[in-house]
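Notebook entry, structure prediction.
Reason for the run: the old model in the group folder had no record of what sequence produced it. Starting over properly, with the input documented here first.
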Amino acid sequence: MRQIFRVREGQRYAKIHGRPGFKSGWEVRSIVAEIKSLPHAHLVNLDDPQDIRTISCNTIADRQYIKLIGQSQQSGV
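New structure, fully documented this time:
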């Protein structure tokens, strides 16, 4: 049985080999959970704060695409 991980603001992620588009570390800045929609996370590139991506929390939690590397010290999470 797969372990389910919870995606939270302040978590930091890195790409898993073979996945294009994740060249550096990324931080979850916010979670968007709309009615009738799966929650999504806004990820900010740590090397280029202008580069922001929105990805399904299910994709992040699955751990097949990106891996958890830590949490921001300023997030308070």
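Summary: Helices lie at 57-62.
The old model has been moved to the deprecated folder.
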